Amino acid sequence: MNKTLIPPIDSINRQWLLVDAQDQTLGRLASEVASVLRGKNKPNYTPHLDTGDFVVVVNADKIRVTGKKAEQKLYRRHSGRPGGMKVETFNSLQDRIPERIVEHAIKGMLPHNALGRQLFRKLKVYRGPEHPHAAQNPQVLTIGSTALAK
User: What would the pLDDT profile of 2-54 be if each residue is shown by its tens digit?
Assistant: First the structure.
């Protein structure tokens, strides 16, 4: 019988990766980033362990969606009080808090348990091109190809 090897926690090598969200499609970007956060791009991926990398997403205000989602996609939140439902469209949320759109899409693609919450803490999203993580020397991660933009 073959045993599955579980990597020791101290042997997991975490890198910092930088993703530019400018002119990227929201869902495609979110699925790639969620995969990197989980560590699925590494040979020592283990489903029940955090083997992923830290991801810094910049230019969240320049993300795009396809079709009529900009006018029709709704984001809901509830205060917990009666009548506390707030509904906002993609365009209005992008004007107000564009980071929340990217965070919401990526969080929905992570596991919905304690491991998912731990993975979500390794995600850093910023509105513009500046970020405070220059000391970690993040490497650029390219997502998608520009050949589809023709």
Answer: 787 888 888 889 999 999 999 999 999 999 999 999 999 999 899 999 999 99
From the CB of residue 138, how many other CB atoms can be counted at a distance below 10 Å? 20
Which residue's entry shows tokens 């990526």?
A: 106
Q: Is 130 in a helix, a strand, or coil?
A: coil
Q: CATH for 16-65+98-144?
A: 3.90.1180.10
pTM (global) more than 0.85: yes
Whole-number Å distance between alpha carbons of 49 and 4: 13
Angle at 63 between CA 61 and CA 66, to 5 degrees: 140
Q: What Cα–Cα distance (Å) separates residue 42 from each residue in 18, 58, 70, 113, 132?
A: 17, 23, 34, 22, 26
Coil, strand, or helix at residue 132?
Answer: coil
